[in-house]
Design goal:
The protein is α/β, with parallel strands linked by helices. It has 15 helices and 19 strands. The protein has 3 domains: 116 residues; 125 residues, no CATH class; 180 residues, fumarase (Alpha-Beta Barrel), CATH 3.20.130.10. Strands 14-15-16-17-19 form a 5-stranded mixed beta barrel. A 4-stranded mixed β-sheet has the order 6-2-7-12. Strands 8-11-9-10 form a 4-stranded mixed β-sheet.
Length: 499
């Protein structure tokens, strides 16, 4: 009987969480590289280039791919012939591993988990508890899948129960079309079919750990109904023209994974969970011989891409000299390089600012004629001004937008993905503009940040308001002062009929 020691399990999970924070799976890099080579929309191609460059930088620098270092998803399969030699509950053991990984001083990961979700939503401070699933299987070893799931893609998870005669592909395509770009495409779609409501979602989540093999499936052709559905959904979703970051383009999904399970004769449960451009997971097996070891991927897996920020198509904008003339001249799809003073602020900061305004108070930061960046960065290490600092999903700030623009005179907002109709109307009414940075390029973006200091709401941790000094920070104009949105015009231009 194999005896799996508690210390080996903790060491292995902690190391795995660190490993996936800065190493994309090689199959993902190959698939993204292929998509980048095929992409015809220059804006989407540049976004994918940033993702690939960021990924290579993180692999070399051992820093997080994305500022949202995710909830820790740990799936453990214990062989019936193995014995876990642990002195406490498995959740406690796994949580110790998560705590160790996320608090590592040489590469701290962002703590995003909040406790008491219906109440104060206080941050746990160490990203515990983990999202743990367990299963007893045949064999005498312990198999562990470790993944880190960001909130932007997790928030787009969907579930339905279809009639048994309904088309799973139709529902998936219609659902993805309505998701927007907050899940940071191009990525992977995980689909679970059958079982019960909870089983379908579990199948969808676990399918995201399966190897990317869409190109091989396309080459060889389907051998069963599941593979036929994968191919159909892949083609139809890409034909929607959503593209990288929702800018419009050839590729929206790199692969579609489907797992199924027997279900009730009256039911067809379907779970859908997208995985973003920060796809992060690894698998290891413990057989009693010691902790798992992880071999770094070969740097030759990454393409050599040089991003020229001084190119003629990029326009420089001074954030310390914004005025109505500059703002009104911005056009959707235009590439900008921002320099100057930039403030951060996301969900909790916006909520608190609105509460202060409602009470007749004065905000601690003067936002008149300024720009705000929707971001919750990773802590800095060494001589970094800030840790990885990519954008968060902007629609979560939509309900605050009109009041903030009206009360403060804010002129620019920077985030990721589309804005809703309410926010777009407010942007146009107040003569403001909305820009996007590339989700999944957090380390690359952070290199444009030369200084950072907290200026308000420090008790909110990563959601505090920071004053940043940036130099040539790359962004794309998404919504102009008249309400025109690249997230509408881009996909419409690249939409096609499925093959």
């Amino acid at each position: 009987m194999a005896v799996i020691r508690e210390s080996d399990l903790i060491d292995s999970i902690a190391e795995a969480l660190q490993y996936i924070s800065y190493f994309h799976p090689p199959d993902f890099i190959r698939a993204m590289t292929s998509a980048w080579e095929r992409e015809q929309n220059p804006g989407a191609k540049d976004a994918m280039a940033q993702i690939l460059v960021n990924s290579r930088m993180c692999a070399i620098g051992r820093r997080p791919i994305c500022q949202d270092t995710g909830t820790a998803n740990i799936a453990i399969q214990v062989g019936a012939g193995a014995r876990l030699e642990i002195s406490r509950g498995l959740q406690e053991v796994v949580d110790e591993a998560v705590r160790r990984a996320y608090r590592l001083d040489t590469n701290p990961l962002r703590a995003s988990v909040v406790v008491d979700p219906l109440g104060a939503r206080k941050n746990s401070g160490d990203n515990t508890p983990a999202m743990l699933s367990t299963e007893i299987v045949a064999g005498d070893a312990v198999s562990v899948h470790v993944s880190a799931k960001g909130g932007g893609s997790e928030n787009k998870a969907k579930f339905t129960v279809l009639n048994p005669s309904a088309s799973v592909a139709d529902w998936v395509v219609q659902t993805v079309e309505a998701l927007g770009a907050g899940w940071c495409p191009p990525g992977i779609l995980g689909i679970g079919v059958g079982g019960s409501s909870d089983k379908a979602m579990w199948l969808a989540k676990q399918s995201l750990n399966d190897p990317i093999d869409m190109s091989e499936l396309q080459r060889c052709g389907p051998l069963n109904r599941t593979e036929e559905i994968r191919l159909e959904i892949h083609d139809r979703v890409n034909a929607l023209g959503i593209g990288a970051q929702g800018l419009g383009g050839v590729t929206t999904v790199l692969d579609v994974k489907v797992r199924s399970f027997p279900t009730h004769a009256a039911s067809l449960p379907v779970g859908l969970i997208p995985n973003c451009a920060a796809t992060r997971h690894v698998h290891f097996t413990l057989d009693g011989s010691g902790p798992a070891s992880f071999i770094p991927p070969d740097l030759s897996d990454w393409p050599e891409i040089l991003i020229d920020r001084a190119s003629a198509h990029a326009r420089r904008v001074d954030l310390d000299a914004l005025n109505d003339e500059v703002i009104s001249s911005l056009k959707p799809g235009e590439t900008l390089l921002l320099s100057g003073t930039l403030y951060t602020g996301r969900d909790a900061a916006h909520k608190r600012m609105v509460e202060i305004l409602d009470a007749g108070g004065e905000l601690p930061v003067d936002l008149k004629g300024r720009a705000i960046y929707y971001v919750g960065p990773v802590d800095a290490v060494g001589n970094e001004a800030i840790g990885p600092a990519g954008p968060t999903t902007s629609t979560r700030m939509d309900k605050f937008t009109d009041q903030i623009l009206s009360a403060t005179g804010l002129k620019l907002m920077i985030g990721k993905a589309e804005r809703g109709p309410q926010a777009i109307e407010a942007i146009a009414r107040h003569g403001a503009a909305y820009l996007i940075a590339v989700g999944g390029a957090a380390y690359l973006v952070s290199k444009a940040i030369k200084a950072a200091r907290p200026v308000a709401f420090e008790d909110l941790g990563m959601e505090a308001i920071y004053e940043l000094k940036v130099e040539d920070m790359p962004v794309t104009v998404a919504v102009d002062t008249t309400g025109n949105s690249i997230h509408k015009t881009g996909p419409a231009k690249w939409r096609r009929e499925p093959a």
